[in-house]
Amino acid sequence: MSVLDLSPVIPVVVLDDPDRAVPLARALLAGGVGVLELTLRTPTALESLRRIAAEVPDVHLGAGTCVRPADVHAAVGAGARFVVSPGTTPSLVAAARDAGVPLLPGVATVSEALQALEMGVSELKFFPAEQSGGAAFLAALRSPLPGLRFCPTGGVTAANAPDYLALGNVGCVGGSWLTPDDAVRAGDFDRVRDLAAAAAGLRG
Ligand SMILES: O=C(O)C(=O)C[C@H](O)[C@H](O)COP(=O)(O)O
């Protein structure tokens, strides 16, 4: 199954403390969200990936902020089953193919989308979504580029997610709102579970 079809929302997670990783993944799962993208933005991100992969195998685990081929290999070595990048380069596409995992590479323009298509990638992250034209931009791509599907991410919230999810070329959206910093720091995983439950119900 495509990464875009796992859940209406892919939670984008920035985690400082690996001790929070497993309870956070379990809270998302308890809320009905069986996928998460853990960003490689913190020094302990690979450790958090390893713990989630080992202890919460039911969650479809991905790694975000992969900006170099080495990030892709490190993330997959730590247990990531898909990788996400804010942009699209031939070396990232090649690294994901070598590693045998799907890559959701970011694009923000029509030319970038066409370049991705030339590299054989037709499922893309639209990033940064709100700043790059939002749902209206993606709606305009539908007829000239019918073969492309998107996961808009960047500025997507519970309030504007339905506008994206209503589009025929959007598989899911990505966003950080399911795992607010203050809730994660306080260990308030009931709040994460409730936000996940609301997100899981956005379409379906
Ligand atoms: O880390 C990456 O690879 C990124 O591309 C950035 C994230 O997708 C955004 O940071 C989403 O964050 P929100 O806008 O708060 O939902």
From TrEMBL:
InterPro entries, A to Z: Aldlse_KDPG_KHG (IPR000887), Aldolase_TIM (IPR013785), KDPG/KHG_AS_1 (IPR031337), KDPG/KHG_AS_2 (IPR031338)
Key words of the record: Carbohydrate metabolism, Lyase, Schiff base
Domain of life from the UniProt record: Bacteria
Catalytic activity line of the entry: 2-dehydro-3-deoxy-6-phospho-D-gluconate = D-glyceraldehyde 3-phosphate + pyruvate
PROSITE patterns xref list: ALDOLASE_KDPG_KHG_1, ALDOLASE_KDPG_KHG_2
GO MF entry, a single one: 2-dehydro-3-deoxy-phosphogluconate aldolase activity
EC number, UniProt record: 4.1.2.14
SUPFAM superfamilies referenced in this protein's UniProt entry, alphabetically: Aldolase
Pathway the protein contributes to: Carbohydrate acid metabolism; 2-dehydro-3-deoxy-D-gluconate degradation; D-glyceraldehyde 3-phosphate and pyruvate from 2-dehydro-3-deoxy-D-gluconate: step 2/2
Matching Pfam families: Aldolase (PF01081)
Top-rank EC class of the record's enzyme: lyase
Homology family: Belongs to the KHG/KDPG aldolase family.
Assembly and interaction partners: Homotrimer.
Protein name as catalogued: 2-dehydro-3-deoxy-phosphogluconate aldolase
Organism of derivation: Kineococcus aurantiacus
